[in-house]
């Protein structure tokens, strides 16, 4: 690897580190802040936490289509990262349910572009240079884990620190994004032409369903896991420790994801990740002891550490190069947006009507459907491969 490639890879790793440090500073502890500091009820918290994913459903594809149409991936990434950091300060300067809904909406509009656009840039660059994408993306897990651990302790001193940390790290991320490798220009496309092409691809649509069922509960868990640990007797610091174990455990699995994918296949690795997620939600439903919750937190690394690189690379492999950003943003909109909203919103209702353990039974039920869809895709891939061999 020459010096220029190393510098670009280091830049990409730095971007993921700081962006996910900011995300880990804010969102895992936001539900506890709204509950204990602002004294909002379960329905209000569910609405505030779920409005962001709803907005992302519509705006993530928009950012991707705009980036592909204008070939402006890097400029859009810098702009949206900066504005996202600024928007979070609204939680400090305003009060009340309505104000928080407006802030969450504004923040989500711009935040929705950050991960899919950076993923698109990183996927294309690592593919071109032969670098394992997981070795870049794992720095996001590192940043997230360090943030929830440190912010968990600092929040006991001043709960508003989570908003200042988010602002500062997103500001640094925006500066880093200026130095990221430029997204190669593809052929010009109309704003909706890429969307039309993707909607005709059966494999793409089915995998969106898998992403919804598997990734949605994992993202919603970032909000409810803190309430789960608290219910089991954990403190703010305990929440931080649990998140640290869970997120840092993603790193070794992201490092080996490339070799597992080459050996087993993309869908097979996604299937393993889905099964592990299902086991995790069932285990939490059984109301385990707090010590077992800490010990089992590594399950997240096994599931997300494999699913994130496998899912993104599968999307890259089955879609045309000139609409990669559109494909990645739609994929992200279904997981980060629609799936996140669905499981966060209805999780809030289940939490209010039953308890936190009912939330995890809800997660397990839908994750099982994602497992079955993955099995269908694997069988369909084998049938297609057999037909191709017979034809040849």
Automatic annotation (TrEMBL):
It holds the Pfam family MFS_1_like. It is found in: Cell membrane. It is a multi-pass membrane protein. Its main location: membrane. Keywords: Cell membrane, Membrane, Transmembrane, Transmembrane helix, Transport. SUPFAM superfamilies: MFS general substrate transporter. Residues 161-392 form the Major facilitator superfamily (MFS) profile domain. The chain crosses the membrane at residues 12-33, 45-63, 161-178, 204-224, 236-254, 266-286, 292-315, 327-351, 357-378. This is MFS transporter. It comes from Mesobacillus jeotgali.
């Amino acid at each position: 690897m020459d010096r220029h490639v190393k510098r670009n890879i280091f830049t990409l790793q730095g971007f993921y580190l700081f962006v996910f440090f900011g995300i880990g500073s804010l969102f895992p502890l936001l539900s506890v802040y709204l509950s204990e500091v602002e004294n909002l009820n379960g329905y209000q918290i569910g609405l505030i936490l779920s409005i962001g994913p709803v907005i992302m459903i519509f705006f993530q594809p928009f950012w991707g289509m705009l980036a592909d149409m204008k070939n402006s991936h890097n400029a859009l990434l810098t702009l949206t990262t900066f504005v996202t950091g600024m928007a979070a300060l609204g939680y400090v300067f305003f009060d009340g349910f309505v104000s928080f809904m407006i802030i969450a909406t504004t923040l989500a509009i711009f935040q929705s572009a950050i991960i899919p656009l950076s993923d698109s840039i990183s996927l294309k660059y690592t593919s071109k240079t032969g670098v394992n994408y997981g070795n870049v993306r794992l720095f996001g897990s590192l940043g997230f884990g360090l943030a929830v651990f440190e912010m968990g302790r600092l929040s006991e001193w001043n709960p508003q620190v989570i908003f200042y940390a988010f602002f500062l790290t997103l500001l640094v991320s925006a500066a880093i994004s200026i130095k990221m490798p430029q997204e190669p220009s593809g052929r010009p496309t109309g704003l909706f032409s890429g969307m039309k092409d993707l909607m005709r691809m059966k494999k793409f649509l089915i995998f969106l369903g898998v992403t919804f069922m598997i990734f949605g509960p994992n993202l919603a868990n970032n909000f409810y896991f803190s309430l789960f640990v608290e219910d089991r007797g954990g403190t703010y610091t305990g929440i931080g420790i649990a998140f640290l174990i869970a997120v840092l455990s993603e790193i070794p699995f992201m490092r080996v994801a490339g070799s597992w994918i080459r050996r087993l296949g993309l869908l097979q690795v996604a299937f393993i990740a889905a099964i592990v997620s299902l086991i995790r939600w069932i285990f939490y439903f059984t109301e385990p002891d707090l010590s077992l919750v800490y010990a089992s937190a590594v399950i997240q690394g096994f599931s997300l550490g494999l699913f994130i690189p496998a899912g993104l690379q599968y999307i890259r492999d089955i879609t045309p190069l000139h609409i990669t950003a559109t494909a990645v943003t739609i994929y992200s909109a279904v997981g980060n947006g629609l799936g996140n909203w669905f499981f966060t919103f209805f999780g809030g209702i289940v939490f209010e009507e039953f308890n936190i353990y009912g939330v995890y039974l809800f997660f397990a039920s839908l994750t099982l459907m994602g497992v079955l869809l993955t099995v269908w895709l694997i069988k369909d891939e084998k049938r297609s491969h057999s037909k191709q061999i017979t034809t040849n």
